[in-house]
Write a structure and sequence with these properties.
This protein is of the alpha/beta class. The chain has a domain of 132 residues: 3-Layer(aba) Sandwich (Rossmann fold), CATH 3.40.50.1390. 44% of the residues lie in helices and 14% in strands. The protein is globular.
């Protein structure tokens, strides 16, 4: 059976596509340096939070890995931001299946590194705790920003309070000039029965 490498890439938002491409380039170059032919490398990717393991690409990779394979992550934070328990849980699952792992940016954490296992586990625990805290801080800051925007009159995606008039906008099939509020359903119903709107 030929050994294979599974490359896992993850970004949190679709607008981070350039970051995904940087991860792809770094991980594929790394796999090539290890001697994996391109046909022996399978790439899995997700646009999802690292705080959950319920990611389609991640789940596909975990399902496809076989004994002797190598899982390649660009960094620990790309594998998970779910904290210490999640990180050790993923690595335990890989180990139980006879799958190795490498981190392009943190080779001291590789399964076959010459790092003392106790030292590796301590470093892994510290880094995963920092990543989890980072994810929580982003979440708190995002919620605070959204609350401030809503308090200022922002209603979700689209126009912000005080934005320039960019002409008519369409909502629910009704074209309304940008400087006028959307008519209520009762007003629309009344206007349509009298031949308006």
């Amino acid at each position: 059976m030929t050994q294979r490498a599974a490359v896992y890439l993850r970004i949190s938002r679709a607008d981070e596509a350039p970051i995904l491409e940087n991860q792809r380039r770094a991980a594929l170059e790394y796999a090539a340096k290890l001697g994996y032919a391109s046909e022996a490398v399978q790439v899995y990717e997700d646009t999802a939070s690292g705080g959950t393991e319920d990611r389609p690409g991640f789940n596909d990779m975990m399902r496809d890995l076989r004994a002797g394979d190598l899982a390649i992550f660009t960094s620990l934070s790309r594998m998970t931001r779910g904290g210490v328990r999640a990180a050790f849980g993923i690595l335990d699952r890989l180990r139980a299946r006879g799958v190795g792992w490498h981190f392009v940016e943190q080779p001291i954490l590789n399964f076959d590194a010459q790092t003392n296992p106790l030292v590796r586990d301590v470093i892994l625990a510290v880094l995963t705790a920092v990543d989890e805290d980072y994810r929580r801080n982003i979440s708190v800051k995002t919620r605070a920003t959204m609350a401030r925007k809503k308090a200022a009159g922002w209603r979700g995606k689209g126009r912000k309070p005080g934005a320039k008039d960019r002409g008519p906008r369409k909502r629910r099939g009704v074209v309304v000039p940008a400087n006028r509020p959307l008519p209520s359903p009762a007003a629309r119903e009344s206007a349509s029965s009298s031949g308006g709107v």
